[in-house]
Amino acid sequence: MSWLALLPLITYAQSENNSNITLSGVVIDAQTKTPLPGATIHLKNTTHDGVTNDKGEFNFLTGQKLPITFQLTYIGYKQAEITVNQRTNIVLALEAANTQLNDVVVVGYGTQQRKSLISSIAKVTAADVKDIPVAGVDAQLQGKAAGVQINSNTGVPGDGVFIRVRGATSINASNDPLYVVDGVFINNTSLQTVNTGGRATSPIADINPADIESIEVLKDASATAIYGSRGANGVVIITTKRGKYGSKPTINFNTSHGWAWAPQLWDLTTGPEHATIVNEFYRNSEQDAIAAGDQAGITKYAQLPFRSVASGGRGLPEEQKTYDRLGELFRTGALHNYNLSLQGGTQTNKYYLGAGYQQQEADIRPINFNRASLKFNFDQKIGDHVQVGTSNSIYRTYRNQARSGDGPQGGLLQSALHTPTYLPELNPDGTPARYAGFDNLQVLIDNYDVHSTSLRYIGNIYAEAELLPDLKFRTSWSLDYNHYDESEYWNNLTQLGAAPTNGLATSALTQNTTWINEQTLNYRKTFDGKHTLGVLLGNTLQSNIQSTTSAQGSGFPSNDFKLISAAATRTADQEWTKATLASFFGRIDYNYAGKYFVEVSARADGSSRFGQHHQFGYFPAIGGAWRLKEEPFLKNVNTISDLKLRASYGLTGNQNGIGNFAAQGLWSGGAGYPETSGSSDQAGIYPLQLSNPDLKWEKTSQVNVGVDLGLFNDRLGIEVNLYSKNTTDALLQLPVNAISGFNTYYANAGKVGNKGYEVAITSINVRNKHFTWQTNFNISGNSNKIKELPVPVTYYNRDWVRLQQGYSMYSFWLYKQLYVDPQTGNAVFEDVNKDGQITTADRQIMGSAIPKFFGGINNNFTYGPFDLGIAFSFQYGNDVYNLNRFFGEGGGTRDANRVLFADQLKRWQKPGDITDVPRVTAYGNNYTLEQSSRFLEDGSFLKLSSLSFGYNLPKSLISKAGFQNVRLYFIGSNLLILKKYSGPDPEINVTSLQNVQGLDLGTPPQPRTVQFGVNVTL
Amino acid sequence: MNTHKYIIPLLGTVLLFSCKKFLDVAPRDAVSDETAAVITDGTSAANAVRGLYRGIAADGYYGTTFQAIGYLSGDNIVWTGSQSIVQQFISHNVRADNASIATAWSAIYAVINRANHIITEVPTVTDPSLTPALKNQYTGEGYFARALGYFDLARTWGGVQITLTPTVTAQDKYGIKRSTLQQTYAQVLSDLVAADSLLPETTNRVRATRKTVWALRARYHLYRQEWANAVTYASKLIDDPSYTLLSPYSAWFANNVTGTAESVFEMSYSTTYPNTHRNSWQPPANNGTRQWAPNDAFLALVNDPTIGGSRSALVAKTSAGLWYGNLYYRPNPATDPSYVIRIAELYLIRAEARAQLNDLNGALSDLDAVRTRAGLGHSEAATKENILLAIENERRLEFAFEPHRWFDLVRTGRAAAVLNVTNPDRLLMPVPASEVLNDKDLDQNHGY
């Protein structure tokens, strides 16, 4: 395993022996008074350096005169300068710094020190992700947190991100984690209504990553059950930056600028190559038509399409030209970032004020993403026992949207990639040419007019009072308000707006409002110095309303008129939906002497979504931990600085992703019809949906066992977790027999299982005065299985994807191509049922978009004023179905309608040819069996997700100018990718449909970027 | 510290907040039928009946899909698009997982469920605004729609499961076996008879009246080979001056006309409820997909002035030379009506029934009425066989893009001779595979 090479290279300096007078003592922890082995000691103004032995003792022989000043550095402790006036029995005490063990971890409704943590929580700090130049914090987390699989679906900044915390648990309900920003449960479902070919925006990209202090991902049941119904898919807690009491005002300005471009595109055939293959296709098809006695076929394929123009053809193959459309579409996009913040505080208040502006151009025209943000956090103490505060963020996100994935009309990549290369951009008369139902690329780029603006406020106010010395009460009101404004205008040069439509405009305004009111009572007390008891009680009320008003107009007087009011035909639509949630929760935790920990939590959630019979769901959890390090037999083993065993079990729920009124029997309006011919419609109603008063919560139980190990005074930290999740009563849209007049209804059926492991290793490989090297490594594997599903469900047109009992989710449903017969050139498919024919019954589940394992390796170096960060992320064993190749290797069957990829040149041509690309013909299964396993590819990758290099200007230079710190830096992303996949990037998906993963069609690949920046602190 | 004296009671109040009420959320664009039936008064009854017609006009039924099954399976159309399931109809090799089959099946049963609600619930409403006449009319319209639904099911799939009650729960309609073809047609007739007794004898081309019932009944008797009844009911319409054959042929659809005197029953569309049918016919130049188009054989016939006559208006050609069907053409808004029954059909029904009854002159006069309107001369057929063949050929052109050709050749037993469909199993469409999978009482048609 290559990563072993990255495990710590721990170096210990030897103490020097070069003088005659002893100087000895011990270095201890200021609080616990335990000795600290391995602490680095430097005698100020000398060349003497030393390290404490395994009892924390040091011993110098030196002639230095008293007093002597010791400079001490020790991992996990604050650096100290201590002056002493004695030569022996010196006791140097070090204050613990914010080490990982003492690290404060945010948990549901509170915080905990990592050393007393029972549950499995991954923490990512702002520093860990500051160098990842993507728009959204969700995409930044890739490779940073064990057990969290993150894939960017496209290369478009601010686009949807696929996140699964410990696997996918649900089929029809949502699989996305719950996002909590400063206690506000925020919306993470895209509000987009315009068609961008399957892509969807990520609402998380509204948030400016620069405002974020830390991100915690809660994974096991003991951590998530306190979030009850929404905890099943994990919880991502985002904490934004706040000031500090009693700190002076600090101004920080950070700006970076750079470029984004696509690293690699597709290999296409040239015009002559395309023509040659199509002619060959005609020749072969004619042969086969004769063999089959198909008279129509013989006529159809009698003449080659690429024959001389004189004989009515398109010209001979060698006369064909090649036109490069990809080069027109792809560009080097510009990236600009500006962030300015002010933070500080007095003894009674603290504040953080941040402003940011980001501009990111995608690597294809004309897509871009702009975000402006303003953040204000404030806390005020009132007397000794009361504190009030507020968090406020306002974001404006502007996107120039364009359709890039599926769908011919208005589709950028289909026009650029799927149009055959021999076809010219212009008609002989100089007008733009359109082919195969695709728009003309240049016309599309010049006339694209689809954009969206998201205005979003996320904020809360709270008051906290200490009712009794150990009893705190807190109340808060939170709001997540999002106004999403979209407009589309297709003028008459584009296909969608061309005559007879004469311009097509859509405007949609969507509002999403969530308010939350929450009360908690928190009690924590330590008795007799040994027993610590914590009790939490709380309730939450939450309401969410989403409404959309949209209008559409067509028939514009000319391209100068763009507003719907100018259109001849206008229609409007309105949608409104609401859901409420009432919850009560509690948690009791107890620990004995920091050694034995036990925690019990429970939440009751009542949801307006469920039938009267099951409105409330109850979600308990229990967890325990044993910190062996505190036991006598380990207390004095210095190599082991921490050892803790953890276990938890609990139940969480899921109700997201189903309709707000899914349980109700409904009659819908909107089925109007006239009374007589020629009169206008009058209102009509019809039965829309069957009721299911028994609809209830989807439940996921989870067992987690884990071990935390710290070695060499926590220079090496290892966290291992094993888990098993079982989802029952899965919310499913079950088919109902159509004679009922309905097709589906929501019910609880189906079971999904996930099992996996996570390993996270943190290692401080080298730490001395000048040089530090730290490595973080994490790897996770998850195996997913649909344990029960009443009927298989297929997804996406041509049913590429199928969920079926006994298989994992995100599996493909294909005909398995075994080989191409070297004698005949025909593709041989596996005849699963051995009936001598290849029929639907021979389609099988093959491959899955779920990786066998994934993770990241991050190395950070500092050398004096320089810092270097190298972050890799990797994924292994996932499959991608290459739909671009499916269309581009049609063997001539699509003739002038689709491009041919260069791979098509490997086709079988004569007996003895060994290839997997079958003989080109219209007959047989070679190119007519659409779901061939030939296009299923290995999607494993290793990416250099970020490379950063920084230089801090010397303090002496900048302090005169009044600066505290000035850092110049460079960031590169995706600079290197190792993959087998034939497309530009295996980390890709054409659609935001949650059950479809790993389909690559016309989606812009993730860009390679470089940026230069400066960060100034005043 | 005094604050807790207030905060604890406050917290208690919040905790006792009436959850029940807070969690009770209702939609605003729909009403719940859980506590009571939705059809409770004159207005809701009228609304439900209009919803019933919108169901017949839906994409899956007379909007596009069901119609397409009828004409694609004939011999006039060639597949020119990207969806290969279309080709299955054209080559008479429809697979049970064909999505169009499932769509049409569901759409028809959705109409039957809407009709069942009306038939069951409207008679029980007590509301002075719902006069006995209106009550009869609405109930009669329900019976008509149900008759149409079972008729279309029977001619496409054979005997089907019969359900006559509104569906309330997801489990309601399990445990029902397929009826025989006889039983299914018997249900059609019984519903038509009920509708006949309830509906007013008025002319309304977009909703069912007694006359619409007679028209469907004429077609029903033709399918059942009850020739005398077919003549009787067809005559009722032909003799009614409200219905006339318009000339030229295109007069009943061209120039954005709706509800012409040609039309006995058509579905109405509007800006709010457009008819998407044109998208499958119109070429990309007219913003369609040209999923299918008239084939060469049909083009030769319809463009032959001695055979097609003015019916050549059904097809058009793009500047690039692509032929396309032009019956559904209205661009913006797409308000082409869906034609369910035209008076021309009743002439040809009577012609066929008369020929079968050996009233050859009567048959020829009806056939010639349709030919004359198309700008053609009298038919030269003389024998019964030749007249029947002439009627068959006339129907091929007259209803080229309406759902007749396939059903005609199946009911006359001519599919083998004309379409080369030699496997008798292929004369019925397969029951949707998903339905067979989901309902153990639903048997697949033989051979699928």
Automatic annotation (TrEMBL), chain B:
Compartments (UniProt record): Cell outer membrane
Under Pfam families, the record lists: SusD-like_3 (PF14322), SusD_RagB (PF07980)
Q: Does the keyword Oxidoreductase apply?
A: no
Superkingdom assignment: Bacteria
* InterPro entries the UniProt entry points to: SusD-like_N, SusD_RagB_dom, TPR-like_helical_dom_sf
Entry-linked SUPFAM superfamilies: TPR-like (SSF48452)
Give a yes or no for keyword Signal in this entry.
yes
CDD domains listed in its UniProt record: SusD
Question: SusD-like N-terminal domain: from which residue to which, for each copy?
Answer: 21-220
Q: Which UniProt keywords apply?
A: Cell outer membrane, Membrane, Signal
Gene Ontology cellular component terms for the protein in this record: cell outer membrane
Main localization of the protein? membrane
- Domain named RagB/SusD: which ranges? 335-414
| Family to which the UniProt record says this protein belongs | Belongs to the SusD family.
Q: What is this protein called?
A: RagB/SusD family nutrient uptake outer membrane protein
Q: Which organism's genome codes for this protein?
A: Chitinophaga agrisoli
